[in-house]
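Before going further, learn to read the protein records used in this course. Taken together, the tokens spell out the fold as the letters spell out the chain. A record is reproduced here so that you can trace the correspondence yourselves:

***
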Amino acid sequence: MQIRTPTDLGALLRERRREMGLSQAALAARVGASRQWVVDLERGKTTVALGLVLRTAAELRLTLRVEASSIAASGIAELGLGPIALGAPAPPSKKAKKKATSTKTTRPKAPKRGASR
């Protein structure tokens, strides 16, 4: 079967789980996930962790094979298969990068002279 979208993959995994007579809870226990995670996977949610998806496929005795195709980079984006969807950490924001490289230290301000307390 050719998988083109996360929804296609979810449907395939659901079908296989049912063929094997497993409940969502039983499959979740076998792969170390929650039942809700299995529900999300089967619905094609794009933010599931790739490692856990692969472990789930292996538990269902499925082999996934990836082949090069002529899908353009824009096609990949349409499928929602960016770094976050694959479980990789999101790249740091500009603000986070600036904060990480900043060497400026701040000192507490001294009270103004003549200020009443």
Q: What stands out?
A: Helices lie at 6-19, 24-31, 35-42, 50-59, 73-78, 94-101. The two ends are 76 Å apart (CA to CA). Confidence is low (pLDDT under 50) at residues 82-91.
